[in-house]
Amino acid sequence: MLAHIASHLPDEINRYYEPFIGGGACFFRFAPPTATLGDANPELVHCWTMVRDRPDELIEALRVHVYEKDYYYS
């Protein structure tokens, strides 16, 4: 769907507003120099805030998780 969305927008975007960031696909696709991102889900906003402001702490916190199927489903 990203290609379809992109086909309806200009090649260059200088200012970007995203009311529902979700996974951020459009934001990362267009990589605007200035953006305002939001979402109705406060947990998702917190997650993206951590990615933006404290990526090293986030990576360290995620190291405790085991990346395997049984762990995921437990």
Question: Could you give a short account of the major beta sheet?
Answer: 2 strands, parallel
How far apart are the termini? 32 Å
Q: What form results from the Cα inertia axes?
A: elongated
Low-confidence spans? none
Rg (CA only): 16 Å
Mean pLDDT across all residues, rounded?
93
**Strand share of the residues?**
5-15%
> Number of helix segments?
5
Number of strands: 2
Sequence of secondary-structure elements: HEHEHHH
Strand order of the largest sheet: 1-2
Structural class based on helices, strands and sheet pairing: mainly alpha
Percentage of residues assigned to helices: 40-55%
Question: What does this molecule look like?
Answer:
This protein is mainly α and about 70 residues long. Helices cover about 50% and strands about 10% of the residues. The chain is built from five helices and two strands; from the N terminus they run H-E-H-E-H-H-H. It has helices at about 1-5, 25-30, 40-55, 55-60, 70-74; strands spanning about 15-20, 35. A two-stranded parallel ribbon has the order 1-2. Helix 2 links the parallel strand 1 (about 15-20) and strand 2. The radius of gyration is 16 Å and the shape is elongated. The model has no long low-confidence stretch (mean pLDDT about 95).
Key traits:
74 residues; mainly alpha; two-stranded parallel sheet; 2 strands; 49% helix
Outline the fold blueprint:
Elements: H1 2-6, E1 15-18, H2 25-30, E2 34-37, H3 42-53, H4 55-62, H5 69-73
Quick overview:
This protein is mainly alpha-helical and 74 residues long.
